[in-house]
Amino acid sequence: MEVQFKDAKQGDMKEIICVICPNSCKLQVFKDKKGEVQVEGYGCTRGIQYGEDEYTAPKRTLITTVKIDGGELPVLPVRSKVAIPKEKLFKAMEVANHVTAKAPIKMGDVVIPNLLGLGVEVIASRSMGKKE
Ligand code: SF4
After folding, report:
1. Rounded to 5 degrees, what are φ and ψ at 50?
2. What are phi and psi of 83, to 5 degrees?
3. Beta bridge pairs of residue 65
4. Is the minimum distance from the CB of 1 to ligand 1 under 6 angstroms?
5. Per-domain residue ranges for the chain?
6. pLDDT over 60 (residue 62)
7. Which of 21, 24, 53 has the most ligand 1 atoms within 8 A of CB, as the residue to mutate?
8. Which atom of ligand 1 is closest in space to residue 20's alpha carbon?
9. Residue 12: per-residue pLDDT
């Protein structure tokens, strides 16, 4: 998925591994002379969108844990419902570090309703009962 810069006739080219499926196609993504993003090396058309997105605005799913009050375990695995801009991940982790959920909780329950004002929910990745 990451990313090397190379000299290319068309301008800066990035080599990006497509992670949509196990084929792991090596994409070459660059801007052409008109400034339009071009993708080569894809094995199917899903790689085109993936390459364009990774080139222009890479996103990642937040996967982390939060503390949980009264739970069977001390922490609760959580994830963002959709991917967020990659450059926001560090701040998102900081937010999650300051959140404490309350047991019991069901998988899919919203733990953070509006992460960093992005309109993205962070949800529980598993259910967790109360500590007995
Ligand atoms: S480009 Fe298509 S075939 Fe290649 S890894 Fe991506 S999804 Fe799979």
Report:
1. -60, -45
2. -70, 150
3. 77
4. no
5. 4-57, 63-124
6. yes
7. 21
8. 7
9. 84
Q: Whose CA is nearest to atom 1 of ligand 1?
A: 47
Ligand 1 contacts CB of residue 47 (under 6 A): yes
> Which atom of ligand 1 sits closest to the CA of residue 48?
1
What is the CATH code for 63-124? 3.10.530.10
* Structure confidence at residue 10 as a pLDDT band (50, 70, 90): low
pTM metric for this prediction:
0.77
Question: How many Å apart are CA 116 and CA 59, to the nearest integer?
Answer: 15
75: its two tokens: 């922490």
Say what the pLDDT of residue 7 is: 46
pLDDT at 33: 87
Residue carrying the six token digits 């990745």 = 125
CB neighbour burial string for 3-14, b if at least 16 within 10 angstroms, e if fewer: eeeeeeeeeebb
Query: CA 34, 37, 42, 46: dihedral to nearest 10 degrees?
Result: -130
Residue nearest to atom 2 of ligand 1 (CA): 44
Residues in the chain, total = 132
Whether the Cβ atoms of residue 67 and residue 98 lie closer than 8 Å to each other: no
